[in-house]
Design goal:
Blueprint (H helix, E strand, L loop, with lengths): L3 E2 L1 H5 L2 H12 L5 E2 H8 L3 H14 L2 E5 L4 E5 L6 H13 L3 E2 H4 L35
Antiparallel strand pairs: 1-5, 2-4, 3-4
Helix pairs in contact: 2-5
């Protein structure tokens, strides 16, 4: 795990943060899927899945040249300007320590009482199935 994380990595899931960083940092650039996979070091299916979600939202557009499908940020989307600003500010902002993002362990003993495991039968009573007894 990384020792320090960028603002983008804290705000968004790691996969989305990487895709945003590449597509929204320089909005004029377009990438094909395997190129995004190589640059992000993520699995191909993971990149395809994230691009499908972003395409469904209209945040990215795609085109095909017959061999590759190219993706780029959609500059006409209402959120483009804001996402572009977040990506730019994330690159300029200081990184946050990972330890600061994790809840510290509790110092007080737990106030919750531990429940005993309920036994189904009391240990000192024999099982009485009633099948071995004779009826008189």
């Amino acid at each position: 795990m990384k020792a320090k994380r960028s603002v983008l990595e804290v705000l968004f899931p790691a996969v989305r943060a990487e895709i945003f960083r590449l597509l929204f940092a320089s909005a004029r650039t377009e990438f094909y899927v395997r190129e995004l996979r190589l640059k992000t070091h993520l699995a191909l299916h993971t990149v395809q899945d994230e691009l499908r979600k972003l395409s469904a939202l209209g945040l990215v557009t795609s085109r095909s040249n017959g061999f590759h499908r190219f993706y780029r940020a959609d500059r006409s989307h209402a959120l483009f300007r804001h996402l572009h600003a977040i990506v730019e500010l994330s690159e300029k902002s200081p990184r946050t320590r990972q330890a600061a993002l994790v809840r510290p362990p509790s110092r007080r003993p737990s106030m919750r009482k531990r429940r005993r495991k309920a036994s189904h039968l009391p240990p000192d009573l024999p099982i009485n199935w009633g099948t071995l007894q004779r009826r008189s």
